[in-house]
TrEMBL record:
UniProt key word Iron-sulfur: no
EC class name: transferase
Keywords: ATP-binding, Carbohydrate metabolism, Cytoplasm, Galactose metabolism, Kinase, Magnesium, Metal-binding, Nucleotide-binding, Transferase
Enzyme Commission identifier(s): 2.7.1.6
Domain Galactokinase N-terminal: 19-58
Source organism of this protein record: Sulfobacillus acidophilus
Protein name: Galactokinase
GO biological process: galactose metabolic process
Taxonomy of the source species: Bacteria, Bacillati, Bacillota, Clostridia, Eubacteriales
Pfam families given in the database record: GalKase_gal_bdg, GHMP_kinases_C, GHMP_kinases_N
Keyword match Kinase: yes
Listed GO MF terms: ATP binding; galactokinase activity; metal ion binding
PANTHER family: GALACTOKINASE-RELATED, MEVALONATE KINASE/GALACTOKINASE
Domain GHMP kinase N-terminal: start-end pairs: 93-180
Length: 400
C-alpha cells in the first residue's frame, strides 16, 4: 500500500523522493462511554487498523496543494483565502481547517503538496474526519520540524472540526486518533484529559467485529446538537438549584433519584439517567476488560445499547436491528452502537470460532428488514498517528 501511494504521490508532485514524508492516522471505535465526552465523563475508545494516509512534500510556490486519491478535485489553499471555508472545496475543508487553526495558534505551517488516501468506510461513524484532521496536523507540524504535544494536536484538530467545518463534536475522537496504542483501549478522563491505556488481550478467543449499517450518520444535521443542548439545559437547571457539580457526569449514582426529581422534565431525566449509568458502566468495563472478562463486558455493552436506545434515544432502527441480531448469535458476548448514533456502526465481541456464523446471521436479519447488506470488519486495535518510514532503496524503487 505505502509503495503504491508513494508512486501516486510522485505523479501528483514530481520531484526528489527523499523530500517526501509519509504519515498515517487511525480511525476509532468507542467500546464504552457514549456521549460522555462533552459531559465530563470517562470514555473507553480504541484506535483501529483502518485510517488515513497523508503524503507531503514542502512546496516552493505558496499555499497548500491538496488532493485525495478518490477525488479528481485538486485544491490550492492560499493563506490569503483560507478563511472562510468554502463548500465547493469539499473534503479539502478538513485539512484547510487544520491549517487555519494552526496559523491562528501561531504555529508555522510550511507550504506543501498534500496527498490523502483513506481506508475508513465513509459514514460508518469510525471517525474518518478526526483521522483526516489529525494526520494533517501531525504531518504539517512535523514538516515544520515541530513535535507538538499529542493532546494539543487533538485539540487543534477538534477546533478545525468545530469552528471551520462547523460540526459540534467533542474531543474523544481526535484524542483517540492521537493517543491510540496497539492492542489497547484508552480510558480517557474527559475532564482532565488524562489517558490510561487498558490492555486488550485479543489474541485470546475474542474478536472485535465492527458492523457498518451503511446508513450514513450526519453530525451537522442530526440530533447530536440537540442532545448537547439538552445536556446543557439539564446542567443549568441543576446549577440553579445549587448542585455542586461541573458536569453531568459528576452526579453520583446515589444522588441520581434526587437529580431526576430536581429536573422535573421527562426528556432531561432520560438524558441524565443515561449519562450517570453509562459513566458507571465505563469504569466497570475498563476493569473487566483488563482482566480479559469479555462476557461481563458484553453484558455491559448490551445494557449500554439499551440505555442509548431508550434513554438517550440516539440509536434508530438500523442500529437496533444490528445490535439485537448480534445478541441472538451464540458466541457473541455483547453488542452496542458506537459513536454518535443515528446511523454508523455497531461493535460486538465475538468468539473467534463463531465469526462466520455471526456474519451470516446478522447479515440475514438486517437484509431481510432493510433490503441491503451491512458491511463487516474484524478490527485490531492500533497505534495513534505516526510517521511511516521506507528504506531509501524502497523509496527509490518508486521513482520512474
Ligand atoms: C461523535 C463525537 C464524539 C462523541 C461521540 C459520542 O463521535 O465526535 O465527540 O461525542 O459522537 O460518544
Amino acid at each position: 500500500m505505502v509503495k503504491q501511494l508513494l508512486e501516486e504521490f510522485l505523479l501528483f508532485s514530481p520531484g526528489p523522493v527523499d523530500e517526501v514524508r509519509i504519515f498515517f492516522a487511525p480511525g476509532r471505535v468507542n467500546l464504552m462511554g457514549e456521549h460522555l465526552d462533552y459531559n465530563g465523563g470517562f470514555v473507553l475508545p480504541a484506535a483501529i487498523n483502518v485510517g488515513t494516509w497523508c503524503l507531503v512534500r514542502p512546496r516552493k510556490s505558496p499555499g497548500w496543494r491538496i488532493k485525495s486519491r478518490t477525488e479528481s478535485l485538486e485544491i490550492i489553499g492560499l493563506s490569503s483565502d483560507i478563511l472562510p471555508p468554502k463548500p465547493e472545496r469539499g473534503f479539502a475543508n478538513y485539512p484547510l481547517g487544520v491549517v487555519a487553526m494552526l496559523r491562528q495558534a501561531d504555529i508555522p505551517v510550511p507550504d506543501a503538496d498534500c496527498y490523502f488516501a483513506g481506508t475508513i468506510p465513509q459514514g460508518a461513524g469510525l471517525s474518518s474526519s478526526a483521522s483526516l484532521e489529525v494526520v494533517t496536523a501531525y504531518a504539517l507540524t512535523h514538516l515544520a520540524g515541530l513535535s507538538l504535544d499529542r493532546t494539543v494536536l487533538a485539540k487543534l484538530a477538534q477546533q478545525a472540526e468545530n469552528d471551520y467545518v462547523g460540526v459540534p463534536c467533542g474531543l474523544m475522537d481526535q484524542l483517540t486518533v492521537t493517543l491510540g496504542k496497539e492492542q489497547h483501549a484508552l480510558l480517557l478522563n474527559m475532564q482532565d484529559l488524562t489517558c490510561r491505556p487498558v490492555p486488550v488481550p485479543m489474541q485470546a478467543d475474542w474478536a472485535l467485529v465492527i458492523v457498518d449499517s451503511r446508513k450514513p450518520h450526519q453530525l451537522i444535521v442530526s440530533p447530536y446538537r440537540k442532545r448537547r443542548e439538552e445536556c446543557a439545559a439539564a446542567l443549568a437547571l441543576l446549577h440553579q438549584q445549587q448542585w455542586p457539580i461541573r458536569y453531568l457526569a459528576d452526579i453520583r449514582p446515589d444522588d441520581l433519584p434526587r437529580a431526576l426529581a430536581a429536573l422535573g422534565d421527562p426528556v432531561l431525566e432520560r438524558r441524565v439517567r443515561h449519562i450517570v449509568h453509562e459513566q458507571e458502566r465505563t469504569i466497570h468495563a475498563s476493569e473487566v476488560l483488563a482482566q480479559g472478562d469479555f462476557t461481563t463486558f458484553g453484558r455491559l455493552m448490551n445494557a449500554s445499547h439499551e440505555s442509548l436506545r431508550l434513554d438517550y434515544e440516539v440509536t434508530g432502527p438500523e442500529l437496533d436491528v444490528l445490535a439485537m441480531a448480534a445478541w441472538s448469535v451464540p458466541g457473541c458476548a455483547g453488542s452496542r452502537m458506537t459513536g454518535a448514533g443515528f446511523g454508523g456502526s455497531t461493535i460486538a465481541w465475538v468468539s473467534r470460532h463463531a465469526i462466520d456464523q455471526f456474519i451470516a446471521e446478522v447479515q440475514a436479519q438486517y437484509e431481510s428488514r432493510f433490503g441491503y447488506a451491512p458491511a463487516f470488519l474484524v478490527a485490531s486495535l492500533a497505534d495513534g498517528v505516526h510517521e511511516v518510514f521506507m528504506t531509501p532503496e524502497e523509496a527509490k524503487s518508486c521513482e520512474y
